[in-house]
């Protein structure tokens, strides 16, 4: 979408476009970052940040994406490789006995795990094992890139916090509560966040113990990950990319 919109601005040379983070189908982005090299024809002044935002958003009107801001950067800047960290949030909804109880405005924007309330203290205990630098081989899905990708990552932050729904004042009397899992690292492995959240929810449901998370880390084998424990994409949001 972005590439096509940029091409509508009639650049004098092919657009070179790079995004900081790719997301799976069904995953959302509150804010992503990208850079592009765009040249105008002879005699035309370079786009200002404001002109670029307005022009790109005009051509992006039919699509579920908007440019929030634009600014000039040095030629050495790279949206992906210059990022210091990436922050994701995963939205969990508690209190739903059945899928039909998920508020209509929240569908596809959260995950409502089955069962009763989650054991948050047990999830926090399990999360302590994931913080820091580890080989996260068990917490990545295998892909064509996996054999060439170093599985060692440093998890800078993993915390749980109550969060409002989009119309939270309508949900409280129904016993619905939102919980956000906030995760921060310089980079993540393929589906790492969804696997970590899924395993932590399994701990909260009593299906795994906090020590199981430590054992999964130590085994360093993607095939050892519990079947059907990966969180669905609907609750995951790329919150920000830090530079």
From TrEMBL:
Instruction: Name the GO terms of the biological process aspect.
Output: tRNA pseudouridine synthesis
Query: Keywords of this protein's UniProt record, alphabetized?
Result: Isomerase, tRNA processing
Positions with a binding annotation for substrate? 88
GO MF term set: RNA binding; tRNA pseudouridine(38-40) synthase activity
* Keyword Nucleotidyltransferase in record: no
What positions does the domain Pseudouridine synthase I TruA alpha/beta occupy? 126-243
InterPro entries, sorted:
PsdUridine_synth_cat_dom_sf, PsdUridine_synth_TruA, PsdUridine_synth_TruA_a/b_dom, PsdUridine_synth_TruA_C, TruA/RsuA/RluB/E/F_N
Name under which the protein is recorded? tRNA pseudouridine synthase
What's the encoding gene here?
Answer: Pusl1
